[in-house]
Structure prediction request, 292 residues.
Amino acid sequence: MPLPGSDPASAAAVNPDNPPWGLLAAVGVVLGSLALVVLLQVAGIVPYFVWRAANKLPLMVGGQPDKNVILISILSMLPAHLLTLVLAWLIVTGRGKRAFWKALGWAWSPRYGFIGDIAACVLITLGLYAIGVALFYVFGNQETELVRMLNSSQAARYAIVVMAVLTAPLVEEVVYRGVLYSALQRRTGRLWGVLGVTLVFALIHVPQYLPNYGAISAILVLSLTLTFVRAYTGRLLPCMIIHTIFNSLSSVGILLEPYLKTVPSPTEQTTASLLPLLLSTSPVVQLISHLF
Prediction:
């Protein structure tokens, strides 16, 4: 709902496909969300290194950061997600002048309603999951940075699952299919809007999944499907439902994997976890460790 003092008529007139924010502001939200991830991960990890150095504890274990560094980097995603939503709210609402959810197309289908939307989203997600499994059979299932993060500790596994289900779908759909797609398709047209957002979303997740081309292909298919749904329906809510169901199915596999002794199912995780990637290859940790 709009804030007290805002214009209700103006709020009601907002069209998600003709947003009042521009492409530059939308790109700023995307870049801001990535910057928040990196800055908050650094803000969490540096004090931990300072504490270890003060207590004369080794900063590296076997040439790699210990499991607490990975856990801290994962947990820092939660405040990054919350601040990203605040940033998106400021842009979408014009600092409270417009209705946030209405401007993004957060609504059930006027024709099929809640039941019809849920049924369609479930069927689409099951199809996506089947395609993902097929892609893993075609390309193989090489170990990725995300899998190493999952295997670092049970706490890391649970933290990833919680954010994959509760915060990542909401934040990523608001940023990419909400803020970015709306502005891009108005500037370039629906086709280029779909292709552009599909590629941006997929590319941002590539570092987590290298060298697993099955996982990368699955993310590309997921991104294309979600963006097409947004373009076809004019609504963001179905995208969030599909994304949440997809991540929930993957999270079940993640939780059961230690007991079944199998490789986790394809999963789509949080926005561009860049620092864990850098930490896995050591230069950032090496640089920080030399400071103490």
In short: The first helix runs from residue 8 to 12. The two ends are 50 Å apart (CA to CA). The chain has 14 helices and no strands.
